[in-house]
Amino acid sequence: SDLAFDDCPENIQYGEISASSVPDQVELFNNFFTNVESSSFSTEDESSKNIFEKFKEQHGFRSGFSCQTGIHEFISYINNALGQKLITLALFIDLRKAFDLIDSLVLLLKLFHYGYDNNSLGLMSYYFNNSSQIVKLQNTHSKPSKLKYGVRQGSVFGPLLFLIFINDLPLCILRAFIELFADDTTLAKSRKKLEKILKDFDKKIEDLN
User: Fold this and answer.
1) Is residue 11 included in any domain, yes or no?
2) 197: closest CA among 93, 90, 94, 83?
3) Which segments constitute the Reverse transcriptase domain (predicted)?
4) C-alpha distances in angstroms, 170 versus 2, 86, 116, 167, 173?
5) Tally of domains within the chain
């Protein structure tokens, strides 16, 4: 039988969670991300060809980077500030359900900006526009609901798509320390007076919004 989402109790919240089975994504993976470091880029700008190496602030889902490398850079920044007798204030940001908040249109625009050709963009557009979710409660299934947001959890290339989406976040923050581990963001600022740091942080939070 069918169960509409509106029929569910108010205390049960079924958010849109993007998931994908391996058989459904193998062909997409082979046709899309095998081109990440190949000639599928239509741009001649060498600086845009390796989009995963372009943003050094990201320490998650990347070979050679880890929590340890991120912590090392953060501690080094603090020690350097202490050596200059500066006050350091840090802000730790964690996006709730980050993978499910990704706007597919924005992600496609970023892929276009990074030089992906029309075939690659069309492939990913088809992938995003033909996804839906069904909630199963015992022997009852909901009606299909089209997914408008999110990269697929449990997929082979979901983390890579997420990195493409979020890696340019540091471009919004100037003259401050910023680093990422997937969706976890560390923002720090060092100055002689705490009041000036707080004022700077107000502006930088506005920039993030």
Assistant:
1) no
2) 90
3) 1-209
4) 45, 23, 22, 7, 5
5) 1
